[in-house]
Amino acid sequence: MEMGFRWDFAYEILPQMLWATLNTIIAAGVGYAIALVVGLFFLLGQRTPSKIVNVINRELVEFIRSTPLLIQLFFVYFVLPQFGIKLSAWLCGMITIGLHFGTYLSEVYRGALEGVSKTQWEACRALNFSTVYTYRRIVLPQAFPIAIPGMGNYLVGIFKDTPLLSTIGVAELFHAATAVGGYNYRYLEPYTMVGIIFLTLSIPAAMWVRNLEKKVNVAQGKVKQ
Amino acid sequence: MSYFAFLAEHGPTLLLGTVTTIKVLVCSTILYVIISMIFGLMRLSKNPAIQGIATVYIEFFRGTSLLVQLFWVYYVLPFFGLSLEAFVAGVVALGMNFGAYGAEIVRAGILAVPKGQWEAAHALNFSPAKRIKRIIVPQIFPIILPPAANLTVELLKATALVALVTVVDLTFEAKQINSITWLSAQCFGTALLIYYIMARFALVPFLRWLEVVAARKVGR
């Protein structure tokens, strides 16, 4: 077997890898969208006045957060069919990622809501604003900028966890690299390219998030410009 | 087959896998703590070359996926004549990946010690070694332990990935049992429970205890 990096082979498989990258980006985007919504539901469960709902919600979040995403994927993928629910690997992956990261995002939302000063609520109460109006016009506009950095970090986090989807057969970038590697008995180029593609996508994304964070801090008056 | 019959038959195998998971966790924790201290200090170096190396290392390992790094270490390094055993490859990949995250925690922790502490130690004519050992380090621990505890719980979850490079850990055993018996709910459910118990009732209380001890050391 030829040693060293073979550029011609790398060039040959490049189109295939780039197509698979598209799938990775779609998976990350859809998973993130689901996680954003799931996070809202967990937040609701946390803030409802019912004590029982609070406790169940908290324990569920704790359970999902302290178990590995990989086994959760296997669980959803292998167990649901036994109860007659047949979902595609894609759908299973998206649901699991959405649930897993939804628990993290609910914490981001909670932190952001608690970041809004109590006096804002009191002022709204004094002005006789309704709860809906208070949330819509006063609290959420202030909470949202606080949540942006955390939300951005988890978008990057989901993107970096998408290779796990290959274990249940979702045809994303890592799956393609493994397939190409197995077909040609060469793993050096495909896996190296996966690493490079991840770097070129996630470093600018992480920098963008850091930049947003700085802007938010300035806007919040935490640091001087 | 009832769940108890399942446990009686496959419980010991899962427990054996759990032992391997704990071994992976302990080894990679030691490795990541060492790496994060080295690179955390390098990030604070005044020498641009040393600082640059640390920055590249951290950005590289935080920018790519752990699974990709793991497969790279296990399947690609043999191309360069370096064949690692699956267990070693798993520990190395986990340690290097989490070391990059830990380095940022260490860096932030050192920066969080007030400058006056350095100056006071200097004014009292403490030697540099004593300054670090008696004044700075005890104050760093209470700052870095809470984020480091979160990171270690993440590490426990991440150890599941080493099953994909054929380390026979809890996840590997669960997958194996699943492919033999097709009792997916039982075997993956049990694996999830074991991970949950390890995280919630062993690792987290231990790390909280460490935090309390560290805080008490500086009189908080």
Give structural attributes:
heterodimer, A: 225 residues, mainly alpha, 79% helix, flat, B: 220 residues, MetI-like fold
Task: Give a structural overview.
The complex is a heterodimer of chains A (225) and B (220). Chain A has 225 residues and is an all-alpha fold. Chain A has one domain (8-219): MetI-like (MetI-like fold), CATH 1.10.3720. Helices cover 79% and strands 0% of the residues of chain A. Chain A is built from eight helices and no strands. The mean pLDDT of chain A is 90. Helices cover 82% and strands 0% of the residues of chain B. The model of chain B has no long low-confidence stretch (mean pLDDT 92). With 220 residues, chain B is an all-alpha fold. Chain B contains eight helices and no strands. The A-B interface holds A 3, 62-63, 66-72, 74-75, 78-79, 82, 160-164, 167, 174, 178, 181, 187-188, 191-192, 194-195, 198-199, 202-203, 206 and B 59-60, 62-69, 71-72, 75-76, 79, 153, 157-161, 163-164, 171, 174-175, 178, 184-185, 188-189, 191-192, 195-196, 199-200, 204.
How would the blueprint of this fold be written?
The complex is a heterodimer of chains A (225) and B (220).
Chain A lengths: L6 H41 L3 H15 L3 H11 L9 H27 L2 H9 L4 H31 L11 H12 L3 H32 L6
Chain B lengths: L2 H41 L4 H16 L2 H11 L9 H27 L2 H9 L4 H31 L11 H12 L2 H34 L3
Helix pairs in contact in B: 1-2, 1-4, 1-7, 1-8, 2-4, 3-4, 4-6, 5-6, 6-8, 7-8
